[in-house]
Write a structure and sequence with these properties.
single chain
Length: 470
């Protein structure tokens, strides 16, 4: 079996608002709603119309900001904010976003969710031309590219810079008097536009709108640049939109169940995936249980379709973070033990279908199967509500490299044996597509590259090694 590797980690989340007297406070709550997308750092930059103000730190949103920061430091009526997941090697204050660049004429703060696949080439080019980069963050590369277009209007300079950047990005940029928002031409990462009290808001997920009391207007379009200022909102395209390739792992694992992505509610989508999985790989059993939290919806769908009752066979300790928060192996192993408990009274003497959303390394699945068997389950049939992850992600999700992905190395039977399951089945790629792409989607198209190896964008040399998740 492969060496222990990193799990499947969150990406990042962005939030922005323009023209609201409580901009900092609303952004704080917005970031709080997006906390599941990144727990290793957060920041807010505000504008009071003349100056930008910043506060950021490492750790959770609640621990970084207090009343003084929100009411005294972060002055102004416009703001951008970011929550960040970071690999172990890139944790560090200097990479926490937003990044703020001050200049005599105008300052700008930038934040994004995604990953630039030609980052290495762009860095090399910038350094050859004399730029000195202080962080390993892709967003600094974008900032330098924008500054290179200083002879243009800022809007044109952003368009020119984004034209050079390849990959996945949901991008926000704040100056003293303008807010810019852009989504990559394939729309790989989610980004939505809403409004509250007559002010525009932007968020990676619509659950942030619900928390702050904002209303959803629409998704940001692939290849779209939105400029918001006192005159209102202006939309234009900086690139021809390509076939939408929204990350399917957002539906499978990352996004909150109460978010809607591309017109589809995440909980409802997971239920459909669970139903489809039951159609494809049903099994004789007494109870269905889901691995909390992200697999509960799929388990309910599986139970509904199969007719096997859904039961709470595993409970989560609420006072522990998500399984894969800590990228180190020892903390992860301890984390699984501390996080989940089997409900003995439910699983004892029963044949259990355990629905989960993914198997990356196999370690977590093995531990959960063991927990259920130790609690008396006579059989544990593992059903995964997504296809096997066989390929790395280059678009901001830390799935590590191919050689470390268990499904890239071993057959389904071998994986079942490794995790101690009595049987194992995954949702088919066709089943995933069928579950997520239908008439209700605003436009068709999901990225399935970590399952199929067919990437929507060109993948550049060194993209696999930069491992620069934002
Ligand atoms: S490769 Fe996988 S994780 Fe990465 S964007 Fe595509 S679907 Fe999402």
């Amino acid at each position: 079996m492969p060496a222990e590797i990193k799990g499947l980690n969150e990406e990042c989340g962005v939030f922005a608002i323009f023209g609201h007297e409580k901009a900092a406070e609303i952004t704080f709550y917005g970031l709080h709603a997006l906390q599941h997308r990144g727990q290793q750092g957060a920041g807010i930059v505000t504008s009071d119309g003349e100056q930008l103000h910043i506060h950021k730190g490492t750790g959770l949103v609640n621990a970084i900001f207090d009343q003084e920061h929100l009411q005294e430091t972060l002055k102004g009526s416009s703001a951008i904010g970011h929550v960040r997941y970071a690999t172990e090697e890139e944790r560090g204050f200097e990479n926490v976003q937003p990044l703020l660049f001050r200049s005599q004429t105008s300052s700008m703060a930038l934040a994004y969710n995604g990953e630039i696949v030609n980052d290495f080439a762009l860095r090399t080019q910038l350094e050859a031309q004399g730029s000195i980069l202080q962080t390993t963050s892709d967003i600094e590369v974008i900032a330098h590219l924008i500054k290179r277009g200083g002879y243009l209007s800022l809007e044109e300079a952003i368009k020119q810079a984004l034209g050079m950047v390849k990959g996945a990005y949901a991008f926000v940029l704040l100056t003293e008097d303008q807010l810019f928002i852009a989504l990559d031409p394939y729309g790989i990462r989610p980004l939505s536009l809403g409004h509250i009290d007559g002010s525009y808001v932007i968020a990676s997920e619509t659950c942030a709108f619900d928390l702050v009391g904002a209303e959803f207007i629409r998704e940001v379009k692939p290849g779209e640049l939105i400029v918001i200022d006192k005159q209102g909102l202006k939309s234009s395209m900086f690139a021809s939109p390509m076939q939408r390739s929204l990350c399917s792992m957002e539906y499978v694992y990352f996004a909150r169940p109460d978010s809607d992505l591309n017109g589809l509610n995440v909980h409802a989508s997971r239920k459909i995936m669970g139903k489809q999985l039951a159609k494809e790989a049903t099994v004789e059993a007494d109870v269905v249980t889901g691995v909390p939290d992200s697999s509960i919806s799929a388990a309910i769908g599986f139970a509904e379709e199969s007719g096997i009752p859904y039961e709470l066979g595993l409970i989560k300790n609420r006072y522990i973070g998500r399984t894969f928060i800590e990228p180190t192996q020892s903390s992860r192993e301890q984390g699984v033990k501390m996080k989940l408990s089997p409900v003995r009274g439910i699983v004892n003497g029963k044949r259990v279908v355990m629905v989960d959303d993914s198997i990356v390394r196999g370690t977590t699945s093995r531990r959960i199967v063991r927990l259920l068997k130790e609690a008396g389950a006579t059989e544990v049939h593992v059903r995964i509500a997504a296809p096997p992850i066989k390929n790395p992600c280059f678009y901001g999700v830390d799935t590590s490299v191919t050689g470390e992905l268990i499904a890239a190395q071993y057959s389904i039977e071998e994986i079942a044996e490794e995790i101690g399951a009595d049987s194992l089945a995954f949702l088919s790629v066709e089943g995933l597509e069928k579950s997520l792409v239908h008439e209700d989607s605003l436009d068709m198209g999901i990225c399935k590259a970590c399952f199929t190896g067919r990437y929507p964008t060109e993948i550049y040399p060194n993209a696999a090694n930069t491992n620069n998740k934002q």
